[in-house]
Structure formats: structure tokens, C-alpha cells
UniProtKB/TrEMBL annotation, chains A, B:
Residues 123-259 form the tRNA/rRNA methyltransferase SpoU type domain. One of its GO terms (biological process) is methylation. It comes from Nitrosospira multiformis. It comes from the Bacteria. Gene3D superfamilies: 3.30.1330.30, 3.40.1280.10. This is RNA methyltransferase, TrmH family. Keywords: Methyltransferase, Transferase.
């Protein structure tokens, strides 16, 4: 198979644009997955990707060979010289394989057990102006692991489908319905259950709050927190109690703590152990 | 006050080296704090920094002016042209102020309530080959908020004192004793209490495990997890139960979930609410 070696090749130029530009990704509805893990997670949920892109040396990798052998007839294969692949890849030490995919509409994602938690109650996450793609990806990953079905992102959030966010979420994108550019006030008002925000000033603790049942958690911008409008649309405000000399948690860490307090309550672990 | 404008200035060149090179930071025992928040956290715990570095336009900022006015006679002040400041700063949108500090030895950190948790029991964190500075910083931040006293890092961890780790930890460095290049097997064996690792295969859940008392949590590399040697030196292995279609959490999210399950158990919140 012939490999692309020219920077002027239109396909290569498209990859670079997709890598760099949220506007381009949204205009054409495409993005890039880097590495076998993300590609496998995508395939498991949504079937084969449009195109697989492999580096010359990636062609020699056993795992990549296996993936290519199983790829199905509809999947295009493009081989790039190692130099071009490294330029197009979103990671510093590229794994040798990428996939070009259509960004899936939220409704096409086959959410865990009909989009409901283990016991059938809806569990959603609302994020306002979450700016760091690493934080956003980590929150998506924790939300999927805790059984959430839907994540609503306001305008001003990092692009959910950027290679950075995809990498941090490790495949959670294909287990959650992600609704970008949502009106969070509208979503919160329409939600049939508790809409809970964490704030430093709240008097009720996370651990005093019933989190089984229908729950939406709301988290705000890393620096500024939640806007007044979104805060007013919540039904409860809680705090995460701290024991140390600081009251400071990373947004993704705070979200994980909240999500897994819900998991703990849903699991109804017998208390006999302690 | 005259500002530095030349890239050949030895002080400016030192800043660039400190910014870029862990070897340089370790050789001279210095690092850089960017922004008022980090500088204030340092000063609160350890007193004034060696040198404050301000950009020309930073000199006009009210908050920075106040900080400079209070700085004390022993603190050197260096003004950089905006161009040079931007080059020396570890962040994309510099705040206009940095501090040059000596990396504090672990023993000099005034840990929360004599280095013990709210009820006097030691609480430590061991990290093996944690490679992402963002994850490392987030774990330090969560550990400080949950009342940990000591964090032990193996060889192969990201540099705890890099500007990236410092930024992600938001001042937690000055509330924790951080022991770099530790032999974790030795630390685990010498620890007088439970040494707990999370693994996917463990049969006992986090929520079935008593976490009050003397606890050390151990977390491994983001990809490879813990080495066999460190795993053998733990006293308990537990899992974090998941409800979703995945069993995957970011290392910093998993750490936050474990730390705050300890906080929940230590707080002994009345259960009357649900």
C-alpha cells in the first residue's frame, strides 16, 4: 500500500485542520480518534469508523495489524509516512493509528440500560463554561463510570469533540449522550428530579443529601463557578466537606466525589463491615 | 524602577531554565510560582518569597500593587518588559506576577494540626510513576483538602515542583509534606496503619472498607497501574464500584473518590436524613 508523504496532500491538510480547529470540526462534523483504545471503544458502541489512518511503522504493530484485518470492507485505509503521521497526531508519542469519524449525534449513542442508572432513575450532568479539555474529559469519564446518561454543556465549554477532550475521556463519549451548546437554565427547569449544585457557601453537606433517584449535578467554570441564572435554576445547593487546611478541589475531582457518593448510595452496601 | 528588556540578561536566562528544566530546578533548588493565588498560599505557609518578578503592565494592577506594597524589605523585586515576562511565564495568559522561591524541604511545611487528620490519625498518599503533572497536582490538591499530611512520590513521577504541577495543585504544596524519589516499598512497610491500593480485580469495595484511623492510599501509573513490588507491600486491595458501562476513572478522580470516602467516614454525618 502506498503511503502519503506530501504535506500538500488534501487529505493530510484536512487532518491538520481537524486537529487544530473546533470551527472546522463543527463545519464538517468530523473528528479524530488517536490510539487503539479510543477506536475500539467507538467501534463497540457505534460500529466501524469512516477511515483508519496508520503510520508506516504502525503497520508493523501486531495490535494494529489485528485491528486492520478485522476492519470490514467499508472502512477506508490511509497510510501516512511516519513524519506526516507525527504531525497529524494529537499526541506527543503517537500510537501509530488514528480514526476519522463522524461526530455522532447524541441520540445515536446506545446509553447503558436505556439511558437510566442501574435502578432506572435518570442521572444527568450539566456543565457551565468548563474550560479545560482535560477537566471536561475527566468529568465525562467519571460520569460514564457512575452510570450517567446525558451530559449538557453550555456555550463556552471546551469542545467536547476535540482530540484532547476525547483522549481524557477514554471512550466515555460513546457511552453518554453529549448535548453541546445547551441552555442550562432550560435543561435544569425541565428536569424531572433534583438539580444539585456544589458551592462553598452551602449549609447542607453532600453526605447529608439523598442522591438516589432522579438527579442532575451542575458544575461551573473552574475559576468563576456558576452564573447566578444557572444557580437560581437549581433545586439544591450542597457543599463537599473538607478536613484539610484548604477548601479547594479541582472541578473534575469535585465531580467525581459527587458522582461516586451517588454510586455508594445506590449500591446500598451493607453497613455491617464497620 | 528600571525593567529588564534583554534576553541575554542572566536573571532572565535563569528564569527560562527554571521554567523548562527539572534538572535545573533540582540543581539549584529553586522554582517559579505564577500568579497571586500561589504566591499568597506560599507566603501564608512559609513567609515571603526570595524574589518577586512583575511585568511592566502587572505593575499597574491593583492586586499586584497591594502585594508589592506589603512585600517586606528582604524581598527582591525585578520588573520585566511585558515581552520577556510572557516568555518566562509558564502560563498562556500571564497574570503579571511570579515569585522565585527555594523549593521547601518537606520538614519545613507546617502541616494541618501537627500533620494529622482532624481526629489525629495519620493520613498519607503514595504515588508510583504518576506521569501527568495535571493529575499529580490535582491529587495533591485533593489530598490537602481531605486532610492528608504526607505525600510520597516514587522515582518516575512527574516533577512535583514544576510550574505545571504547582499550578494544578493551587497551593496544596504548602500544606503537605512532599517526599520525592521515595522508596514506596520501604514507606509502605514502615507505615503504622492500613496501606490501601485500588485495583479493578479486588473483591472488597471502597464502601465496605473502614477508612478512619491510620491510612495510606497508594495509586499507580496512569497506564500500567502499580508494580508488583509495591502491590505486595500494601495491606489491602479494594475496588471502586462502578454503575456504568465502563470501569474506567482518571487517576486523580479515583484518588479524590477514595480520599473523600475517608472524609465522609471521619465526619460521621448523622444518617437521619435518609
Amino acid at each position: 500500500m502506498k503511503s502519503l508523504t506530501s504535506r500538500d496532500n488534501p487529505f493530510f491538510r484536512q487532518l491538520i485542520k481537524l486537529e487544530d480547529s473546533v470551527r472546522q470540526r463543527r463545519a464538517v462534523g468530523l473528528t479524530l480518534l488517536d490510539g487503539i483504545h479510543l477506536i475500539s471503544a467507538y467501534r463497540l458502541a457505534l460500529g466501524p469508523p469512516k477511515t483508519l489512518i496508520v503510520s508506516e511503522s504502525g503497520c508493523e504493530n501486531m495490535e494494529i495489524k489485528r485491528l486492520l484485518a478485522e476492519r470490514g470492507v467499508d472502512v477506508d485505509l490511509v497510510v501516512l509516512s511516519d513524519v506526516l503521521f507525527r504531525e497529524a497526531s494529537p499526541v506527543k508519542t503517537p500510537t501509530g493509528i488514528m480514526a476519522l469519524i463522524s461526530i455522532p449525534p447524541a441520540a445515536t449513542i446506545p446509553v447503558h440500560k436505556d439511558g437510566k442508572g442501574e435502578r432506572g432513575e435518570p442521572f444527568c450532568v450539566l456543565l457551565e463554561a468548563m474550560q479545560d479539555p482535560g477537566n471536561l474529559g475527566s468529568i465525562l469519564r467519571s460520569a460514564a463510570a457512575a452510570g450517567a446518561s446525558d451530559v449538557y454543556l453550555s456555550d463556552g465549554c471546551a469542545d467536547a469533540w476535540s482530540p484532547k477532550t476525547l483522549r481524557a475521556a477514554m471512550g466515555a463519549h460513546f457511552l453518554l449522550r453529549i448535548h453541546e451548546r445547551s441552555d442550562l437554565v432550560e435543561v435544569a427547569r425541565a428536569f424531572n428530579g433534583k438539580v444539585i449544585a456544589t458551592t462553598l457557601k452551602a449549609r447542607i453537606s453532600l453526605y447529608q443529601t439523598q442522591l438516589t433517584g432522579s438527579i442532575a449535578f451542575v458544575f461551573g467554570n473552574e475559576g468563576a463557578g456558576l452564573s447566578d441564572a444557572v444557580l437560581r435554576a437549581t433545586s439544591e445547593q450542597i457543599n463537599i466537606p473538607m478536613l484539610g487546611g484548604t477548601e479547594s478541589l479541582n472541578a473534575a475531582a469535585a465531580a467525581a466525589v459527587c458522582f461516586f457518593e451517588r454510586v455508594r448510595q445506590m449500591k446500598k452496601i451493607p453497613r455491617s463491615v464497620f
